[in-house]
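Hey there, shall we discuss this one?
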Amino acid sequence: MLAAYLQFGGAVFGGGPMLTQSVPIKEVLLPWQEKGLSYTATGYGRKIPTSYKVFWERKWRRVYCCIYSNSGTCYLAKGSDWICTVDVYN
């Protein structure tokens, strides 16, 4: 069963206290993911869409990943701004 936690504050957003919130999550594959393809040729990028959506503020929102090395950071975005980081657990 999938579980998702949104994390507001902390080091990513300039310090201060961190607020963690549990939210519903679902997996919705994009057409290129159904074909087994990668979003970019290298697999790296700042705003890579994942197959996950979380329900936050009365809307299902796509989870994005910023990845440039062996690990990435998942987050919710509003335009080009990060709203919060997202932890997804199986």
